[in-house]
Amino acid sequence: MLQLTRLLGATAVALAALAPLSAAPPAAAAPAPAGTGTAAGPLMPPPVRDADRDGDHLTVTVRDAGEGVDGTYELFCRPAGGSHPDPARACAAVERNTRWGEDAFAPVPEGSVCTMQYGGPATAHVTGTWAGRPVDATYDRRDGCRIARWDRLVPLLPDLRSPGRP
């Protein structure tokens, strides 16, 4: 019991010594640099540098999507170009789905609950480099999750949605 009393007393003294430090105004602290995650701010990812994007180049191979859509297309971004039918909008679609620390081309997570619907036999294979990282992703439309994953990248991938559907 005596040891517990001594321990509690020592803890109270240590906390009292720290009290003036915690009372410092927030303006006195310098802002935390990106990625440091200190008491001055949350852990923030560094921005993607333009130098990391210089190599943005994707090859898209589409099969069984229909005549005039099937084929292999090259896409370059910054500036947009290549043999893709709509390079500017395709680059914008990938950019819109790019988040720091996440793979814009990630597969549907294992164990996902997906609607039992079939979006057709179309498949796509995307390879290359995006934001300085290698890309090797496959797409199909065999259930609701995979259809949604495909549709997020339209027009990088062809728009196969039903007419009148957003």
Compact summary:
The protein is of the alpha+beta class. It has helices spanning 2-22, 50-53, 87-96, 144-152, and strands at 57-63, 71-76, 123-130, 133-140.
By DSSP (H or I, 4+ residues per run), the number of helices equals 4
Name the structural class.
alpha+beta
Q: What is the CATH topology of the domain at 50-98 and 116-152?
A: Subtilisin Inhibitor
Main sheet attributes: strand count, strand direction, barrel closure: 4 strands, antiparallel
CATH class of the domain at 50-98 and 116-152: Alpha Beta
Number of β-strand runs: 4
What fraction of residues sit in β-strands? 15-25%
Poorly predicted tracts of residues: 4-8, 10-37
Question: Could you name the CATH homologous superfamily of the domain at 50-98 and 116-152?
Answer: Subtilisin inhibitor-like
How much helicity do the residues have? 25-40%
Could you tell me the radius of gyration in angstroms?
25 Å
H-E string: HHEEHEEH
What does this 3D model show about the protein?
By secondary structure, the chain is α+β, with helices and mostly antiparallel strands. It has a domain at 50-98 and 116-152: Subtilisin inhibitor-like (Subtilisin Inhibitor). Helix content is 27%, strand content 17%. The protein is built from four helices and four strands. It has helices spanning 2-22, 50-53, 87-96, 144-152; strands at 57-63, 71-76, 123-130, 133-140. It has a four-stranded antiparallel beta sheet with strand order 2-1-3-4, covered by helices on one side. Strand 3 and strand 4 (133-140) form a beta hairpin. The chain is globular and about 40 Å long. Residues 1-29 form the signal peptide. Keywords: Disulfide bond, Protease inhibitor, Secreted, Serine protease inhibitor, Signal. This is SSI family serine proteinase inhibitor. Residues 26-54 are annotated as: Disordered. It comes from Streptomyces viridiviolaceus.
